[in-house]
Amino acid sequence: MASRITKAVIPAAGLGTRFLPATKAMPKEMLPVVDKPAIQYVVEEAVAAGLTDVLLITGRNKTALENHFDRATELEANLEKKGDVDRLHKVEFSNDLADMHYVRQGDPRGLGHAVLRSRMHVGNQPFAVLLGDDLIDERDVLLSRMIEEQNKRDATIIALMEVDPEVAHMYGVATIEATGSPDVVRVTDLVEKPAQGTAPSNYAIIGRYVLQPDIFDILDNTEPGKGNEIQLTDALRTQAKNNVAGGVYGVVFRGRRYDTGDRLDYIKAIVQLAVEREDLGPELRPWLKEFSATLE
Q: Could you count the other beta carbons within 10 Å of the beta carbon of residue 125?
């Protein structure tokens, strides 16, 4: 069956306070991961899964995001004049990567509210939501598998990953039932950041969702939850418990995920990606071994 899904929504209105002062004047989504801004990895992932209509939910001081996916005529002309073809191609690549759209969130009222702001653009069709803090390695399949499951089940699909129970309280956590498909589970309940030691499982939600359009009506009636924000997890809980629009299923991801949500994990993500690069890895790996020896 051909996918009915063509649209991806990427919330990008956060203030990035954990990265201050770097994010005082620059959106956190534009922080470089090796030599590309984090947001470009996410857009590339959406495009690779066939979603070329991309809506960014932005906020104040986020114009750099729009600029990145637009032409940089003077820069391109300068690189062309110098004959720097490699860098020119890298700059031009993001220009036509996807059909980019932008809408502001306004008040920062949580992820659920950010998703709700996409309603006019998405319309009455399933759509994907990708969070920029989670980078999925391009060599590992996740989003396209989720879209396949959505086509098959006509339900909402969320990405799950098994985490250490000691850190489950930092995530939204799912209560699950097995299905007949490998690494696909039915979600019967969800809780957003449960108190430590009370999580119903160690299956944590990571930042990929394929949602039914019914989620908008549910979000409209979802009261603020954790942090006095409208939580997407709470709306998904309502959908799962009441089996609305086919209910909620999870695809369990066992591949490589890079968390850029805090400073330490951001640094780890850069190192992990850089050592795999053909242009950087051969020199970086032996240096890392030498440097790590000095820490013993």
A: 11
For residue 259, which of 274, 271, 269, 251 has the smallest C-alpha distance? 269
Token pair listed for 84 = 């720097």
Tokens of 4: 């009915």
pTM: 0.92
Residue 233: closest CA among 255, 248, 214: 248
76 with 91: CB under 8 angstroms? yes
State yes or no: cis peptide before 21, omega within 30 of 0. yes
The encoded tokens of residue 89 equal 């191609």
Rounded CA-CA distance 143/46 in Å is: 8
Q: What percent of the chain has pLDDT over 70?
A: 99
pLDDT band at 47 (very low <50, low <70, confident <90, very high): very high
Are 105 and 117 in contact by the 8 Å Cβ rule? The answer is: yes
DSSP assignments along 109-172, one per residue: --HHHHHHTTHHHH-SS-EEEE-TTEEEPTTS--HHHHHHHHHHH-SEEEEEEE--GGGGGGSE
Q: What CATH number does the domain located at 7-261 have?
A: 3.90.550.10
Dist. CA 159–CA 238, nearest whole Å: 17
**Residue of 183, 276, 200 lying closest to 237 (CA atoms):** 200
Q: Tell me the CB-side half-sphere exposure of residue 253, using CA atoms within 13 A.
A: 28
- C-alpha 182/C-alpha 9 separation (Å) is 27
- The ranges assigned to domains in the chain are 7-261
Strand, coil or helix: 122: helix
Using alpha carbons, select from 250, 16, 234, 210 the residue that is nearest to residue 130.
210
